[in-house]
């Protein structure tokens, strides 16, 4: 069976991306990163729950402690407040410097080791909120770099099945594929009940509302 590395944060987008990989006939090797994010414990639980639902046999849980040293993001530096006033123009303070570039580099090393032909990542341009590492242009560029910097026999395709979808389309596609969205976690701030007011919660809730569907995870504010 063909194999794919799936970068799986435990959020809605990466989860749907992983289910799409399974639906496309790939044996999944799941990769999760603990990088000092505020909701690290809750995201790890979501990752493990989703891996169990997908019956994934091989998974990597990788610690990347240096992101907290670098800081410069509200997700990894607790002295910076997570914004709750709605999405603003430009690169937001929740952007983690070159996070997806680092994730994809590690995923590429795993893909080369495991002889997989694809990496799935759930980047979404609409959801990027100005994140420069969530664009199709970035993915195309780093794909070239990865294939240049690996063995000649290594040919890795980075698949971004959600990149042009809106959040409501993601919700509807997830329902179509029986994705257990109640197991996923998107909140930037909280681990018990989602805050409902950070950018990620707002995007998620708006997606469910436009899709005319109920989000079954608990929220402090709806």
UniProtKB/TrEMBL annotation:
NCBIfam families reported in the protein's UniProt record: 7-cyano-7-deazaguanine synthase QueC
Binding site for ATP: 8-18
Keyword Glycoprotein attributed: no
Top-level taxon in the UniProt lineage: Bacteria
GO BP, sorted A to Z: tRNA queuosine(34) biosynthetic process
Native species: Malaciobacter mytili LMG 24559
Catalytic activity: 7-carboxy-7-carbaguanine + NH4(+) + 2 ATP = 7-cyano-7-carbaguanine + 2 AMP + 2 diphosphate + 2 H(+)
Pfam families to which the protein is assigned, alphabetical: QueC
Annotated metabolic or biological route of this protein: Purine metabolism; 7-cyano-7-deazaguanine biosynthesis
One Gene Ontology MF term: ligase activity, forming carbon-nitrogen bonds
Name this polypeptide is given: 7-cyano-7-deazaguanine synthase
Family: Belongs to the QueC family.
Function summary: Catalyzes the ATP-dependent conversion of 7-carboxy-7-deazaguanine (CDG) to 7-cyano-7-deazaguanine (preQ(0)).
Protein residues bound to Zn(2+): 187, 195, 198, 201
Entry keywords, A to Z: ATP-binding, Ligase, Metal-binding, Nucleotide-binding, Queuosine biosynthesis, Zinc
């Amino acid at each position: 069976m063909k194999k794919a590395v799936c970068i799986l944060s435990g959020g809605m987008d990466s989860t749907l991306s992983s289910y799409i990989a399974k639906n496309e006939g790939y044996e999944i090797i799941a990769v999760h990163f603990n990088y000092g994010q505020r909701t690290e414990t809750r995201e790890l639980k979501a990752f493990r729950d989703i891996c169990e639902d997908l019956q994934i046999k091989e998974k990597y849980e990788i610690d990347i402690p240096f992101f907290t040293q670098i800081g410069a993001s509200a997700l990894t530096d607790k002295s910076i407040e997570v914004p709750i006033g709605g999405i603003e123009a430009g690169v937001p303070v929740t952007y983690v410097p070159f996070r997806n570039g680092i994730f994809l580099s590690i995923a590429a090393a795993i893909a080369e080791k495991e002889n997989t032909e694809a990496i799935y990542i759930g980047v979404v341009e609409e959801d990027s909120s100005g994140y420069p590492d969530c664009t199709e242009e970035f993915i195309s560029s780093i794909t070239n770099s990865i294939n240049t910097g690996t063995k000649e026999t290594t040919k890795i395709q980075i698949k971004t099945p959600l990149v042009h979808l809106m959040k409501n389309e993601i919700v509807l596609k997830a329902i179509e594929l029986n994705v257990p969205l109640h197991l996923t976690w998107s909140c930037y701030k909280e681990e018990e009940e989602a805050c409902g007011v950070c950018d990620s919660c707002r995007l998620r809730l708006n997606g469910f509302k436009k899709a005319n569907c109920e989000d079954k995870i608990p929220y402090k504010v709806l």
